[in-house]
Amino acid sequence: MNAADLRALDRLQLQVSRRLDGLLHGDYLGLLPGAGSEPGEAREYRAGDDVRRMDWPVTARTTTPHVRTTIADRELETWLAVDLSPSLDFGTVGMLKRELAEGAVAAFAYLAGRGGNRIGAVVTEGGPAKAIPPRPGRGGARSLLRAVNAFPRGEGPGDLAELIDKTRRHARRRGLAIVVSDFLEDDEHASDWSRELRRLAVRQQVLCVEVLDPAELALPDVGVLDLIDPETGAEVEVQTGNARFRARYAEAAAEQRARIAAGIRAGGAAHLRLSTGSDWLRDIAAFVAQRRHLAAYR
Hints:
This protein is of the alpha/beta class.
């Protein structure tokens, strides 16, 4: 990684920290609010304790009511499954989807790293997925982002199912898993990654961050375009001046995104969509704030 790359990463991290601290308030901006879910130690029952946490074996052994405490969620591990396959080397509104994905990694690593959480990642650039071991806190988040950015460009289509499966194998402790991808897999393999999401969600809270570009939803009227699939090299010429063609394209794109959303729901994951054409940091902050608000009323 050269000096220019390091300066760009430092600017990104500064932007993330300043914007999110301004948009979200509170000492702990964790993505898993609540008392916790990892089993902790047993202690004597006190008035007001949740009876669903009664530790009956200890109660029977000591003849004194005991409850089982839980470890705070902020102490759990977060794993990022990062898809940087060649389909993300596309963008029409000032940034590539790859840059948006890296920004999302920076934002969620920053949020998850507060309070000393350990953060790891599994990354694919179009080849076999590789793991980055988890490290704690903001320092761990910083080193993780640099490691993600330093991955060499891959060739050929990525395997999202394999990426999620490898993340599940590394995420052995209960915690949070965040999948960052454009989810552009052919219909034949869509069920594969949705099935792997379900397996991942057995022990993890899962969030899917879908990155897209506005041109993937609706083609602009710019005449003849020569398009190349970055993963297969296939080329096609399209006439964007044809209104009927643009309408068919928008309809097919909407159906594709609906299938992606359905696959994420079937996998038991939360869904956040980020666009290169929007204020993506504000969208992340709004999503996190909404989750915290909903958790407060559960």
